[in-house]
């Protein structure tokens, strides 16, 4: 279970202000490209599951360059997101081949842990069900900060229809973390609101909330 505090920042200026305030605590920056997949018959979307391929174009040495993930059973309430998440590193060259030909995902139904889960949990255990397609995706520039024993991720997410600015924080004590972050934002006049949709849900809706 991934539990995150998710707060939406008002605009680009607010985003810039927060980055300036947190700059002494900056540890790294990730340039992420997110791509999403489903079958032609929407086997995953029908069950509110998300299959994502994330590529890092400038990863630090300790970070894998390509991650395949499966998210399911999402709940987002009062700025706290809870979702079942499974991640698996995959070969970057194979990731590029999958992006060129999404049907290649079927060849991994028995070898990849996540794709085996997809087959068993969403395709009825049948290798021949559905053709995989790419739904598209978006870019995300993530600045990471270590602040008050928390890891804050300040995101600039670029969609074709606009840009979203958020601050996220994964924590086993989300209400405590949310209180600390909200106090800091209010103290410094940084306008925010609780996120009401996941980045993927916004992408599928085609407009900013």
From TrEMBL:
CDD domains cross-referenced by the UniProt entry: CYTH-like_Pase
Name of a matching Pfam family: CYTH
Domain CYTH, residue spans: 1-207
Signal peptide interval: none
Protein name (record): Triphosphate tunel metalloenzyme 3-like protein
Naturally occurring in which organism (per UniProt): Tanacetum coccineum
């Amino acid at each position: 279970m991934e539990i995150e505090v998710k707060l939406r920042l008002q605009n680009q200026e607010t985003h810039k202000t927060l980055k300036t305030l947190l700059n002494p605590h900056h540890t790294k920056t990730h340039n992420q490209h997110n791509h999403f997949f489903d079958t032609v018959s929407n086997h995953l979307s029908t069950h509110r599951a998300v299959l994502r391929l994330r590529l890092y174009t400038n990863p630090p040495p300790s970070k894998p360059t390509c991650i395949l993930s499966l998210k399911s059973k999402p709940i987002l309430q009062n700025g706290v997101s809870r979702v079942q998440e499974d991640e698996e590193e995959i070969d970057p060259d194979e990731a590029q081949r999958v992006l060129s030909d999404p049907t290649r995902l079927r060849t991994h139904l028995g070898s990849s842990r996540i794709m085996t889960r997809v087959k068993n949990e969403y395709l009825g255990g049948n290798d021949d069900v559905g053709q995989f397609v790419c739904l598209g995706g978006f870019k995300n520039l993530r600045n990471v900060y270590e602040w008050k024993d928390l890891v804050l991720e300040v995101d600039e997410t670029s969609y074709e229809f606009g840009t979203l600015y958020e601050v996220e924080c994964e924590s086993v004590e989300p209400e405590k973390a949310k209180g600390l972050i909200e106090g800091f934002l209010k103290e410094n006049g940084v306008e925010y609101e609780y996120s009401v949709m996941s980045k993927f849900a916004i992408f599928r809706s085609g407009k900013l909330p």
